Amino acid sequence: MSFPNPAKAVKLVLLGEAAVGKSSLVLRFVSNDFQENKEPTIGAAFLTQKCTIGDKTIKYEIWDTAGQERFASLAPMYYRNAQAALVVYDITKPASFLKARHWVKELHEQASKDITIALVGNKYDLVEDENDGDTLRKVSVEEGQKLAEDEGLLFFETSAKTSYNVNEVFVGIGTKIPESSAPTGVQQAGNEAGRIDLTTGAASTTQQTSGCC
Amino acid sequence: MDEEFDVIVLGTGLTECILSGLLSVEGKKVLHIDKQDFYGGESASLNLSQVYSKFRPSGQKPELAGRDRDWCIDLIPKFLMSNGELTNILVHTDVTRYIEFKQIGGSYVYRNGRIAKVPANEMEAVRSSLMGIFEKRRMKGFLEFIAKYDEDDKSTHQGLDLDNNTMNEVYNYFRLENGTKDFIGHAMALWPNDDYLNEPAKPTYERIILYVQSVAKYGKSPYIYPLYGLGELPQGFARLSAIYGGTYMLGTPIDEILYDEKKNFAGVITKEGKAKAPIVIADPTYFPERVKKTGQKVIRAMCILDHPVANTSDLDSLQLIIPQNQVGRKHDIYVAVVSDVHCVVPKGYYLAIVSTIIETETPHVELEPAFKLLGSRVDTLMGIAELYEPQDDGTSSGIFISKSYDSTSHFESMTDDVKDLYFRVTGKPLVLKKRPSDQEEDDALNGL
């Protein structure tokens, strides 16, 4: 008899122009019955969801921008110790793809080196019925793929509305995240002793709770 | 943008960010602007190049290890009391979710030319090297009195009246020596000068209780500190505000302040257009004509060290207080030491921030007693800050201005200002309560 591995916590941040469907993608992922061990929401713009891939379980801690991207006012705290990022654009809006390039650049500058980034072209539902006309589509699959290849990103086209490819994004990230990558900033800090949990008032040892970190 | 808001907040210092967060949670529509392109204002933590461009724009920068952002240097050196009001606010707003904290390793005081750990309870007092054997006994008696004192039970008062007796009278009742008074008043009650001696003892009693309870909470010292520096605090509260609908604009100078016909605040114009609101909360730099000098200036010296502070058992962090009397001054000198375990410097470095209220024409010389205790320094960056406070309470103009961050070593006076501003802005006292339920948070997310 074997026990399942403890879930590995992964901080995942969402980036992309307003209204490309960042929150919808997360809601689709979190509220879907993708895994039976689904965890409930613990707070707006800070959702958690477990995801089992083969023999490992990942617990995503998903940080929404909470609108702070609107006037380019995201805090360094947002990128801090993020191990994964979704850079989302709308395949019917070329400007949002330009913005996605900007966010990829920003991540390379601000985030940790081994961050796993997925480039996600959302709103596939708007073009899936168009056969060769593809009138609404303004960003081609090839353009997305090219950017992903140049920058070493995962690439998906999704629809939060129909759920097309949504779980695949999170499974893809979970598969690519380096095994050795630190679960949170704590290990990167190299020293866990003396950390405390203010909510319980307990002088800490090693246990991490989903709520406080 | 041409939008209407309930409140406009100018400056992303900690005071402003806490108020922004509290008001957003209550459902107010908040626009939060900073003229600078980083969070934190005067209470930010800056990376290496930001710090050097601020303090030594044209000068030399020493060879230092690590990437630029491995350095998070606080502009205002303070620690949180683990049982203090800021901790309370963090817990009640759940901002603890975004920030990790560590204990500060120890609390030290300078006496008779050397430094010693501050005893926080009777047990430590007995072992302390700060006192002789008879004085230890008297100190033990004093601490027992403090611990047992119950306002409603006269039998615990030993004939003293804390609302009427001065603190000096209380000390003298226990026949404490001047040096002991020094470390009780300055290293435990954390008074920055000796004015408290001739005032009623109650506030000092309350401060000692706060110190003792804060030590009791986690053990090593009464202080806690956020990983990546104090600049995480304003960011955390800004995030809280944003989650509850607050709009953030950094790097946005105010082009014009708008007033209505009664000369009350009406809004601001920025590069994004006009934003209207009946109320503004701002730090002193946004309304220079509406603030006055307190008369105090603080000197702060950021010292980069490549070794721990001597005689502290190589602690990774500590507070060191040099009481005024010990070095012939009127104001204490504070030293806050943090290191790589707090993710504010690369491994092998220590950051010691020395501060005091200026008393002479050569302020840097005033810090010498602290520099001597720190030993060799890789580099030292100094800045002097004038302290400001608002000229009026803002209720008639709708312009509510915060105070500058003072020279105290903790956040208790800052949270007093937050509560005071909250009362002036809303007309009701700040009551901390638990954040709304998960369901309400779901609704908030759906609204994004």
UniProtKB/TrEMBL annotation, chain A:
UniProt key word Thylakoid: no
One matching Pfam family: Ras
SMART domains: RAB, RAN, RAS, RHO
SUPFAM superfamilies in UniProt: P-loop containing nucleoside triphosphate hydrolases (SSF52540)
InterPro entries in alphabetical order: P-loop_NTPase (IPR027417), Small_GTP-bd (IPR005225), Small_GTPase (IPR001806)
The keyword Nucleotide-binding is assigned to this record: yes
Keywords for the protein's UniProt record, in alphabetical order: Nucleotide-binding
GO molecular function: GTP binding; GTPase activity
PANTHER family: PTHR47978
NCBIfam families, A to Z: small_GTP
Protein name: Ras-domain-containing protein
UniProtKB/TrEMBL annotation, chain B:
Highest taxon of the lineage: Eukaryota
Stored InterPro entries: FAD/NAD-bd_sf, GDP_dissociation_inhibitor, RabGDI
Residue spans crossing the bilayer: none
Gene3D superfamilies, alphabetized: FAD/NAD(P)-binding domain (3.50.50.60), Guanine Nucleotide Dissociation Inhibitor, domain 1 (1.10.405.10), Guanine Nucleotide Dissociation Inhibitor, domain 2 (3.30.519.10)
GO CC annotations on file: cytoplasm
Alphabetical GO biological process terms: protein transport; small GTPase-mediated signal transduction; vesicle-mediated transport
GO MF terms held by the record: Rab GDP-dissociation inhibitor activity
Pfam families: GDI (PF00996)
Family, similarity comment: Belongs to the Rab GDI family.
Record-given protein name: Rab GDP dissociation inhibitor
Organism: Candida tenuis (strain ATCC 10573 / BCRC 21748 / CBS 615 / JCM 9827 / NBRC 10315 / NRRL Y-1498 / VKM Y-70)
